[in-house]
Amino acid sequence: MNAIRNYMDNILKAVTSTAKGMGITLRYWALEPSITVEYPDRLGKGVTAEDLVSERFRGFLGFEPSVCIACLQCQRVCPTDCIKVGTEKRDEVRFITRFDVNQAKCMHCGLCVEECPTEALFFTKRYEGACFDMEGLCFSHVGEPVPAAKRKREDGGQE
Amino acid sequence: MAKYSSKEMVLNMGPHHPSTHGVLRFILQTDGEMMVKATPDVGFLHRGLEKIAEKVPWQSFMPYTDRIDYLASVNCNLGYALAVERLAGVEVPERAEYLRVIAAELGRLGSHFIGFGALLLDLGAVTPFVHALRERETFNDLMEMLTGARLTHNYVRIGGVSHDLPEGFLDKCREFVDHLEHEFIPEFNDLISFNSILINRLANVGVITEETAREFTLVGANLRGAGVPFDLRKDEPYSIYDRFEFDVPVGRGKFGQRGDCYDRYWVRVEEVTESCRIIRQAIDGLPGSGETRTRLPKVFKVPEGEAYVRTESPRGELGFYIISDGGKMPYRLKIRTGSFSSITIIEHISQGVMVADLVAIIGSLDVVAPEIDR
Questions:
Q1: What tens-digit pLDDT sequence spans chain B (374 residues)?
Q2: A-contacting residues in B 108-147 (Cβ below 8 Å)
Q3: CB contact under 8 A, B144 and A111
Q4: CA distance B127 to A18
Q5: In this structure, are residues B369 and B70 in contact, taking their beta carbons and an 8 Å threshold?
Q6: Nearest-CA neighbor of B321 among B303, B307, B305?
Q7: E strands along B174-227, which residues?
Q8: In 3D, which of B364, B323, B372 has the Cα closest to residue B67?
Q9: Structure pTM?
Q10: Where are the domains of chain A?
Q11: How many whole angstroms from its chain centre is CA B184?
Q12: CA–CA separation, B256 vs B264, rounded Å?
């Protein structure tokens, strides 16, 4: 008799506790609004992927040559060596001859952006970089050599 | 009549089995539905982080520590930063210490959601996993606000943190913590924790006694699940954890023997509440303003010597042993992680269990594959 009671008890426990859980599931299904956000290209209304990320989002690296002082701090601190900076001195003026960022190697850690004293290097919000060739992710930010910006005296960086 | 072989059958579970966590391989010797032995085969995710550390400057190794345990990267950042700070004697501003604790405890929450969520998914309960992932999504959004990344946060720096708080972060954080403690956890318990089918699947399965846990040097929630109240935040407080009030949940054999799968699961669920308490206290105690980072010299060098710092990551003791020869890079770095000791015990406790229970055992130990191999 005891065995039968135990057996029935077990069934009752399984059914009631499952029903309790299913009740929650049912409530979510019927009453709660859906929390799924579709990928931006399906949203329409001009919403892009960049609009959905936060202010500090670490996307692809952007570069502003006019304020770069060519201190090479970003290249030094980069853990994956994805930044390559070339400089050249012509008639007592330093020129930036290349500023290449291999976005495929970059792990978006943000160390270079923090090191940059002039905010020449910054994060964009762009992150969709799928392409068929790895070369498509190597960005040359400087075409023709540009003169490096004058560094401020009190900045005290290395010359 | 055909002759049937009475030999044991050797099965491979993995390396791409979805119910193991990450790329992990088990060699199972089975006798019908019963397991004779399950031998873990690790090494698929070895990336040589310890060697990389010898080749990059001290600050530049920080993003690599994200990759030790990707479910709670801030906790790994913190361990490395504390180790270097102890060796170099770098002071950390008060405000940065609080921000570190808030971020690290959020990381613990995020990790435990995946921890018990994935265990339930392995057992076939998809709905609770989605509920846990929904909370993880809020955590991801918070961290994106704070650090700019959703998975590899890279928030802690040597001598502080990378960013100060963004506007509105604390309110959202407090709201999230309140929601977890008062809404999510009770609902989650009704949904699945007290479900008698789950209890039958987990209780009295994969029992780890106190002695076995010590023998296999288990750490973290797995050790506490076995009944040992050992938590580095309490027993050997690092950072500013000695200022907070919280309890250390211990396995008590809630529905079966002490140290079974359910105890380990339940310890994690209870730890969510404790982390919520710590976050709330940290938000209250946060200094209004101040520095968040000590400026390091351009060429940062660490004096000769060695240091071992252990911290409580969601998967247990995370230790960084650092040797410096006074240069710009570490001379040697050794990382000790909790998942590695968790995986060694699987061979021992999987003897004589059912194949279906092995999935529960692996899930309840909350093994994260990249943390095993580094």
A1: 566 666 788 888 777 655 556 678 888 888 888 888 888 888 888 888 888 888 888 888 888 988 888 888 899 999 999 998 888 888 888 888 898 999 999 999 989 998 888 888 888 888 888 888 888 988 998 998 888 888 888 888 888 888 888 888 889 999 999 998 888 898 888 888 888 888 888 888 888 888 888 888 888 888 888 888 888 888 888 888 888 888 888 888 888 888 888 988 999 998 999 999 999 998 888 888 888 888 887 778 888 888 899 898 888 888 899 998 888 888 988 998 888 888 888 888 888 888 888 888 888 888 888 888 87
A2: 127, 134, 137, 141, 144-147
A3: no
A4: 12
A5: no
A6: B307
A7: none
A8: B372
A9: 0.86
A10: 1-36, 50-152
A11: 21
A12: 12
- Classify residue B6 as exposed, middle or buried by CB count within 10 Å of its CB (0-12, 13-18, 19+): exposed
- The CATH-assigned architecture of domain A50-152 is 2-Layer Sandwich (3.30)
State ipTM: 0.80
How far is residue A22's CA from residue A32's CA, in Å, rounded to a whole number? Answer: 14
User: In the block, which residue shows the tokens 């996307």?
Assistant: A59
- End-to-end, the C-alpha distance of chain A in Å comes to 93
Please give the structure tokens belonging to residue B38: 């399950």
A18, A79, A110 ranked by CB distance to B195: nearest: A18
Cross-chain Cβ contact B59/A18 below 8 Å: no
Identify all chain B residues contacting A57, using CB atoms and an 8 Å cutoff. 144, 148-149
Indicate yes or no: CB of B162 within 8 angstroms of CB of A114: yes
Write down the H helix ranges in chain A: 2-30, 40-43, 73-77, 111-115
Domains, chain B: 59-345+355-373 (1.10.645.10)
Q: Tell if the CB–CB gap between A55 and B145 is shorter than 8 Å.
A: yes
* Strands, E assignment, chain B: 9-13, 25-31, 34-41, 156-157, 160-161, 305-313, 316-324, 332-336
